[in-house]
Write a structure and sequence with these properties.
This is Cytochrome C and Quinol oxidase polypeptide I. By secondary structure, this protein is mostly helical. It has five helices and no strands. The chain binds protoporphyrin IX containing FE (HEM) (2 copies).
């Protein structure tokens, strides 16, 4: 395994969201108040699951974590997700006025996902990555 710093950050964030998501799940189960179940589901799925996948895919293909597009993808996601989930929590607690914020933040998350798709299509198995892994292999043999 390599030591890709961006992947390490994704893993740390994923673990943090996992802790928050499960704590919310346990709290919902214990209190019987499931009003925040959509927040719990998306903390776990956009946070724990998707961030762990970003980290694992970045470990397997470091080229998708490098450069400006990857940095923009990272920051759009990491601003969009907490803002969206924070605003959704407020919305579910009765603050209807935060709806536009949920909309803007979810579009930000959506754009980040499109950038991620672009990175996957344009950088995985490109000639450069094949050449650099071939160079690594020839050094090892
Ligand atoms: C100890 C851990 C967990 C507890 C106690 C817990 C508890 C709960 C509870 C009480 C609900 C609400 C059910 C309802 O009102 O319909 C729920 C929903 C949900 N949870 Fe968890 N959860 C846990 C972990 C997770 C994890 C790790 C994930 C995802 C990776 C997850 C994904 C979901 C999803 C997607 C829903 C919504 C399901 C639906 O559409 O009804 N949960 N959970
Ligand atoms: C910007 C990103 C996303 C937005 C804006 C979004 C929005 C929504 C909305 C509006 C619902 C219906 C909620 C309801 O009827 O109460 C929903 C449900 C659901 N979404 Fe998402 N979603 C996003 C990303 C994801 C991702 C990435 C996953 C899985 C990896 C996911 C899994 C689910 C599941 C399992 C449900 C059913 C449980 C629930 O109602 O909370 N969502 N989502």
């Amino acid at each position: 395994m390599n030591h890709n710093p961006r992947s390490r950050t994704w893993f740390r964030l994923a673990a943090l969201y996992f802790a928050i998501g499960v704590a919310l799940g346990v709290t919902m189960g214990a209190s019987g108040d499931h009003s925040l179940f959509a927040v719990h589901a998306h903390v776990n799925l956009l946070g724990w699951v998707s961030m762990a996948l970003f980290g694992i895919i970045g470990t397997a293909h470091p080229s998708i974590t490098e450069g400006r597009v990857a940095a923009v993808q990272f920051w759009m996601y990491n601003v969009g997700v907490p803002v969206m989930l924070g605003a959704l929590t407020l919305r579910l607690k009765g603050f209807a006025s935060v709806e536009p914020l949920i909309a803007v933040a979810s579009v930000l998350v959506g754009c980040s996902v499109l950038l991620f798709a672009w990175l996957v299509f344009s950088r995985i198995s490109t000639t450069t990555e094949r050449l650099s892994s071939a160079a690594r292999e020839s050094r090892l043999s």
